[in-house]
Amino acid sequence: MMRTRPLKVALLGCGVVGSEVARIMTTHADDLAARIGAPLELAGVAVRRPSKVREGIDPALITTDATALVKRGDIDVVVEVIGGIEPARTLITTAFEHGASVVSANKALLAEDGATLFAAAEKHGKDLYYEAAVAGAIPLLRPLRESLAGDKVNRVLGIVNGTTNFILDRMDSSGAGYSEALDEATALGYAEADPTADVEGFDAAAKAAILAGIAFHTRVRLDDVHREGLTEVTSADIASARRMGCTVKLLAICERAADGKSVTARVHPAMIPLSHPLASVREAYNAVFVEAEAAGQLMFYGPGAGGAPTASAVLGDLVAVCRNRLGESTGPGESAYTRLPVSSMAEVVTRYHISLDVADKPGVLAQVATVFAEHDVSIDTVRQQGRLDSEGLGGEASLVVVTHRAPDAALSGTVEALRKLDTVRGVASIMRVEGE
Ligand code: NDP
Ligand code: HSE
């Protein structure tokens, strides 16, 4: 039975994502109404620049007063696609206070202060859905939260930032420069308003915090996530990865400790073998592996950024939230009952690729190997290549060491000791090796 009175939607933000949400709401109005059981009405659109021409949107709906819009009292669902912490946080909590449910794509806010939003939603008996906040169009959060609710997730590993994957892919496949690739990603609508959030790993870290929280039923904040961006990745690292049969990806990795008593969450560039499925994730695509006790390994893959793909996830949430409203129910709220502590990076165990500039003379290799042994870091492979020094004379070599699995703290101690050796001229790069 179709209800004739429409459900009113307030759209906060009409940029890359918001404009596509509005477009799909209009072009698919009949299908959406049939799926929900009531038509949707776009009741207002809050923006910063009211004079900007917005195709397909009735200018009478445009407002710069987002607060007044969410306070109207007749709004059923607020779709927040402004981004950032404020005013988004206040607008969302105000929306709950005034009777609306909320759909948001705002990973920065959810990772920074999800607790405030979840508490406000619960207090007012409203929904907060945010599928679009992680991995764009890929249905990932709802499968994790609902389909895997009966299983025990132990690990989530993946590529969750489209912009950085696009940049690394361009640098690797076409030899494009970093800035050129970033400009292209920005023009395609993948990058955040401030692309520093992408390239410094903040965006992926926010997504890692959200994923870890849902996967392990605990609270993980942005500050709990170890974060390294891709600005330090050089073309030499990419070439070195190639020589090892690997490629470089910016990975988000969330793990439950072997004893089950803590979790870790980290984002950093890593080498992965070309044979690994993540190695073939190109352009702005995302892919996420979930390892669960009973289900085994699951892989989620698809467009991770961009207006239309992200709007698809927003619209999916909008339909779910509207159905809940018609049924006078709410979906699952936050589940953080395990209260597991988040361990530091020092406790993470993984493999490392270390590139050293050393003096090319007898005994150097033995000296270097001794430092690794003293820190209990086992060497897997060593590759040495002699080269000319700055004066065109011999006497220097590049030494690439790949280790077996070791704690991050042990690796840091090893590198610190290596730097003190007279024969080590410099540590050219350190990169983790994952996916084996
Ligand atoms: P844009 O910068 O393209 O759009 C932001 C919109 O918000 C604009 O319409 C802007 O108005 C409006 N706005 C900004 N500040 C205010 C304010 N104070 N009051 C009212 N309106 C305001 O961002 P995106 O669409 O790219 O991203 C939106 C959200 O979606 C972010 O949280 C982002 O992280 C998330 N997201 C984005 C993805 C993507 O691929 N782009 C993918 C997944 C999530 P105006 O148009 O006048 O400037
Ligand atoms: N800037 C983000 C990215 C948008 O590049 O992945 C999608 O969350």
State the gist of this model.
The chain is α/β, with parallel strands linked by helices and 436 residues long.
Can you offer a commentary on this structure?
Catalyzes the conversion of L-aspartate-beta-semialdehyde (L-Asa) to L-homoserine (L-Hse), the third step in the biosynthesis of threonine and methionine from aspartate. Belongs to the homoserine dehydrogenase family. By secondary structure, this protein is α/β, with parallel strands linked by helices. The strands form two sheets. Strands 7, 8, 9, 10, 11, 12, 13, 14, 15, 16 and 17 form an eleven-stranded mixed β-sheet that branches. Strands 3-2-1-4-5-6 form a six-stranded parallel β-sheet, sandwiched between helices. A hairpin with an 8-residue loop joins strand 14 and strand 15. The site of NADPH dihydro-nicotinamide-adenine-dinucleotide phosphate has 28 residues, from helix 1.
What labels would you give this structure?
binds NADPH dihydro-nicotinamide-adenine-dinucleotide phosphate, Alpha-Beta Plaits, Dihydrodipicolinate Reductase, domain 2, single chain, eleven-stranded mixed β-sheet, alpha/beta, elongated, six-stranded parallel β-sheet, binds L-homoserine, Rossmann fold, 436 residues
Produce the secondary structure layout:
Elements: E1 7-12, H1 16-27, H2 29-36, E2 40-46, E3 62-63, H3 66-70, E4 77-80, H4 88-97, E5 101-104, H5 107-123, E6 128-129, H6 141-147, E7 153-159, H7 162-173, H8 178-187, H9 196-199, H10 202-216, E8 226-227, H11 235-243, E9 246-256, E10 263-273, E11 285-292, E12 296-303, H12 307-326, E13 349-359, H13 364-374, E14 379-387, E15 396-403, E16 406-407, H14 408-419, E17 424-433
Parallel strand pairs: 1-2, 1-4, 2-3, 4-5, 5-6, 8-10, 10-17
Antiparallel strand pairs: 7-9, 7-11, 9-10, 11-12, 13-15, 13-16, 13-17, 14-15
Helix pairs in contact: 1-12, 4-5, 5-10, 7-8, 13-14
The structure holds NADPH dihydro-nicotinamide-adenine-dinucleotide phosphate (NDP) and L-homoserine.
L-homoserine binds at residues 136, 161-163, 190-192, 198, 203, 304-305.
